[in-house]
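FAQ: What does a ligand-bound record look like?

Like this one, built around 5-amino-5-deoxy-1-O-phosphono-D-mannitol:
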Amino acid sequence: MTKTDISAADIDTANTDRAADINRAAATTVDPGLSTGEFPDYMLKEIYEQPRVLQDILTGRYDAARQRLVFDEITLTADEIRSLRHICIIACGTSFHAGLIAKDFVERLTDLTVDVQIASEFLFNQRKHRENAMVIAISQSGMTSDTLDAVQMARANGAYVVAITNVMDSTITTLANASLYIQADIEIAVPATKSYTAQLAILTLLALYLGQERGTQRPTEVALFYAELLDSVDKIVRILASQSLAKIEQAAAACAQAENILLLGRGTGTATCKEAALKVKETSYRHAEAFSVLEFVHGPIALIDPGVATPVVALLPADSLDDATRDVLFKAKAYGAKLIVFTEESEQRLVGQVDYQIFLPKATPIQMPFVAIVALQLFARHIACILGCDIDNPRYLSKVVVSH
Ligand code: M6R
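The answer part, i.e. the structure of the complex:
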């Protein structure tokens, strides 16, 4: 596999860039030329920007005449892509959650298996060198120290590193072999929203590209899948304009005083719930934790406090709502939980049995991570609004986490 080795000089240059990043991050202020416009805060503005951002990313990569995706930034030859043996995704925070979903997409669309690791933990990984490994490093800012350290380690171990970032010429781009931009424009609110769905979009396209190059996806399949992805944009537009908005706000109001909010999902839904839990924690300073539905009965269900009707928020598209899942929900209800369930719009099996049922547009397994998180971002933000929190600038947090 052709790789340009990272040299000591590269690392020195990157470290000089990192010192500049630290200063830049410390001096980060909102450009006075920018404004929230008709929105009360940047977080809400950025939530509403998601359809446009996704549309831009998706339309730039597909060659319709040839039914092929194009990723010119990736310098590996088709043979080298076919000889990849392993993919590892590294990131922090929200970007890590995008990686959890990307694992499902890559494994669904290719014959590769994927590890997803928190960047700071990757540094403790005992298995340093793998033959023919691709590392995908995700960082909105391109400046997160833990992710940069992990990228340097991956390069030193011989991996081909693909960086996914929103910031042109950020440090991560100087360290990686290839950089893919998510084109989300500047994201001002500390709680990441549009950068997350933009990361999901580029990761999904990358997964499909790997499938195309490895021969696991034929051109007609690439075309169909691409159309399915584009269709998720319309579904997000529908949520943002739907009658579900009022329901989401009512459900958020019912959770605002709870000290503890438990979220349940299945498959990629669990990863989506982890991201929603992070949004609740950072915007509202409420404890929120996500679990896989069936794992909930192996301990976490004891967290339900009947005295305060602990909210249990479940994300259950039709393919997740089997008998075993329903059993868990009804157990939680019997133990005193307040049940808030996000389902697809035609779902009738829970009607009258939960406290709040919020309808999402019907979506395929590939579309649901895009669609569901938008509703959950709104849910988290509304809790913070009710509590009077500083939504764009939560306490103790900054847009870029750098260390010296
Ligand atoms: O810039 P990065 O994507 O590397 O940042 C990683 C995390 O610090 C970031 O996603 C953080 O978790 C967000 N504030 C979450 O909304």
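Follow-up question: can I read anything off the structure? Yes, for example: The CA atoms of residues 7 and 156 lie 9 Å apart.
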